[in-house]
Amino acid sequence: MTAVTAAPVTKAKPRAEVQTGGRKGGSHFWIHVGLIIFTFFALYPILWVLTLAFSGQQSLSIATLPQDATFWDRLRAIIPWPQQISLKNFVDVLTEQPFLTWLLNSAIVAGLTTVVGVFLACTAAYAFSRFRFPGRQQGMMAFLVSQMFPGTLMMIPLYIIIVSWLGLGNSYFGLVLVYAVTAIPFCVWMLKGYFDTIPIEIEESAIMDGASRAVIFWRIVLPLARPAVAVTALFSFMTGWNEFILASVFMTEETRYTAPVGLRFFVGGFSAQWGYFAAGSIIVSIPVVILFLYLQKYLVSGLTAGGVKG
Amino acid sequence: MAQIKFEHVSKRFGDVAVIENLDLHIRDQEFMVFVGPSGCGKSTALRMIAGLEEISGGTLSIGDRVVNDVHPKDRDVAMVFQSYALYPHMTVRENIAFGLKIRKLPQAEIDGLVNEAATMLGLTEYLDRKPRALSGGQRQRVALGRAIVRKPSVFLFDEPLSNLDAELRVTMRAEISKLQRRMKVTTVYVTHDQVEAMTMGDRIAVLAPLKRHPSGNLMQVGTPLELYDRPQNLFVARFIGTPSMNIVEMAVDADGTALRFHDFVLPVPAAYRGGIGAYAGRNVAVGFRPEHVGHAEEHQWDTISPIRGEVEIVETLGHEAIIHFRVGGSMVIGKIRGHGVVLPRLGEAIDLVVKASSIHLFDPQTEQRLPEA
Asked: What is the percentage of chain B residues whose pLDDT exceeds 90?
């Protein structure tokens, strides 16, 4: 019995062996049934968004149910597949609505957040990792503690500081400041942990070679920390790109909306433009996916392999 | 001229003193080895020359310049680390060229120097590989290349061979010695392996941990043979030589001519006769090397009365054998020829003699060598 079921496993490629490793005999059928059900739960809302976006209409329902709906009518109504496929929602969102402006706003804010956040996080994390100074431990602890409060808690104080005191309402800079500050604690922890794994001898060796701290940081440490920098860049970008609450509070002029804030106005108050909302959501998600795919090649382990004897 | 001078140098990490009272003069072009057990401060002393550790007290000079506050990059010193410490994201060529690039040499000159170093070390065909695609020995060679390419006035080696396997270690030992002689660069080499120290060094500095010798780390400086033949104290006597020297406390006769331990009697060697008077009737520490211990029937050595030892361990090494004898409550180790003789059996009792003209006498309290005429 065992031999029969084990045979395909041993013939399978190494990859499959890893996946089924440790499992002896028995059928995978029920496991797959379970997994398919959960996958369906995860995908169903996304399928609805896709359906609405490509339906070319604004209504939330795909099919109109007749008075005496049959089982098949009802079934049709919950299957996420549009009656006709059209790109009209995408075209309208980008041309008739100011969505392109909002996207651009989001790109500026998220891009600047990434640059500012990653730069400050890298330099701060390097200092925390390599230098010993008063307040080092407390600083790291403060960063950690700051992560334990929900962001909404800070909405009013941030509004007072950014908008009332600094007068940075409706400005990119105000949002960038807030987002970068929000993202930095996580990024510093992430990067410090990574910098700690880079052997100090490599840096000492560079010192002996005549390199200054700046050269060591830019040409030795940062290239070796690429995976961690990629993760923090992605995180910083998404912090700025997806954020809704603060952006909706700080950005009150329509021309200054970021994409998530703008999206809300398709379905809020007096309008219910679900088609635009769905199309806009898909457009918003594309840059994140592209960025992730681009950064993925840096998310490899073992960059420091070969530098020092383990 | 790149002599290195330690004058009353000390080093403390917080409250912990690691180096105290270090006075040492390393001559120009000399191959100096720092050797000692772990915690003796040998690596710290080396890192002070490099500038990677600050100096807590005293002065350190390279050439004629005091370098206490000189940045590592301005000391004209190159260092090879135990862990190689290569730049993993750069090719071998970039690794070797890094120091030259920092110094902004013209590219053509860099290429020439890198190729020269690579040829010298047999690395030419690996120049475009990354360190992770190299073996341990090759990586160590790249680390060497990075050091020699700058033609510095001092080389520092921090246990560079301890990560290599035994065979490669012997090869690299010879290669480093050859390289140093060819380049005529003052070299300081740190190791805990006394075989490396004996085979490579022009001179050796033996260091001891401060907690054993609070007055200072430096136990003795000298050529390998000086350390072997005339250790100045018990620490060096025990540390240099494998297996280590036997140390037995023996009583000096009232007339200062003989040493006694139970029925074991040795004559006091002529050289010590003048100074031993002060120890008459007291104990001295007597050291004798394993090769000077032998079977009473085979050697006509000048032992007055032999001592009976029971064979406890026999280690056969081929050309020689190492025998551990139990003598009273302590152990005596002897090294005998391994060929053409019948090796003693375990448990066998043998009358042992010692070549008395080769013994070393030390004061048991101060652990210093007794004065010789």
From this structure: 72
Choose between A16 and B52: higher pLDDT: B52
- Give ranges for CATH 3.40.50.300 in chain B: 4-237
Measured distance CA(B365)–CA(B343) in Å, rounded? 38
Q: Which of A205, A207, A305 is facing B73, going by the closest CB pair? A: A207
Q: Which residues contact A232 (CB under 8 A, 6 or more apart)?
A: A117, A118, A121, A122, A183, A186, A187, A190, A191
Asked if the Cβ–Cβ distance from A307 to B136 is below 8 Å, we say no
Task: Quickly state the pLDDT bin for A93 (edges 50, 70, 90).
Answer: confident
- For residues A234 and A287, what is the distance between their CA atoms, to the nearest angstrom? 11
Out of A63-67, B92-96, B211-215, B306-310, least confident range: A63-67
pTM for this entry: 0.81
Q: Answer whether residue A3 shows pLDDT above 70.
A: no
**Second-level CATH architecture of B243-362:** Beta Barrel (2.40)
Angstroms from A188 CA to nearest CA on chain B: 23
Instruction: Out of 3.40.50.300, 3.40.309.10, 3.30.360.10, 3.40.190.10, select the CATH number for domain B4-237.
Output: 3.40.50.300
B59-82 confidence digits (pLDDT tens): 999 999 999 999 999 999 999 999
Tokens of B23: 């006075």
The mean of the pLDDT values for chain B is 92
Provide the 3-class DSSP secondary structure of residue B164: coil
Confidence of residue A7 (pLDDT cuts 50, 70, 90): very low
* A49 CA: distance to closest CA in chain B (Å): 44
B100 is written with which tokens?
């030259």
CB within 8 Å: B89 and A208 = no
pLDDT for residue A98 is more than 60: yes
Taking the C-alpha atoms of residue B31 and residue B183, their distance in angstroms, rounded to an integer, is 11
Q: Give the whole-angstrom CA distance, residue A304 versus residue A169.
A: 44
Look at residue A309 in the predicted model and tell me its pLDDT. 61
Q: Which of A66-70, B161-165, B271-275 has the lowest mean pLDDT?
A: A66-70
**Which of B13, B86, B138 to mutate to probe the A interface, most A CBs <10 Å?**
B86
The reply to whether residue B139 touches residue A209, judged by beta carbons under 8 angstroms, is no
For chain A, the residues whose C-beta falls within 8 A of a C-beta of chain B are 199, 201-202, 204-212, 215, 220, 223-224, 302-309
pLDDT tens digit sequence for B8-28 = 999 999 899 999 999 999 999
Strand partners for B220: B206
Block residue for tokens 């299957």: A79
Answer whether residue A61 shows pLDDT above 90: no
The answer to whether residue A125 scores a pLDDT higher than 80 is yes
Contacts of residue A206 in chain B, CB cutoff 8 Å? 87, 98
**A259-290: string of b/e by CB count within 10 Å (b at 16+)?**
bbbbbebbbeeeeebbbbbbbbbbbbeebeee
CATH 2.40.50.140 segments of chain B: 243-362
The backbone torsions φ and ψ at residue B296, rounded to the nearest 5 degrees and listed phi first, read -55, -30
* CB-CB contact of B88 with A304 (8 Å): yes
One-letter amino acid of B296 = A
For residue B269, the SS3 value is coil
> Least CB-CB distance to A224: which of B79, B89, B98?
B89
CA distance B304 to A307: 61
DSSP state of A271: -
Residue A2 pLDDT exceeds 60: no
Test mutation, B46, B73, B158, chain A, max A CBs within 10 A? B73
Instruction: Report CA-CA distances (Å) from A177 to A112, A146, A240, A285.
Output: 9, 16, 10, 23
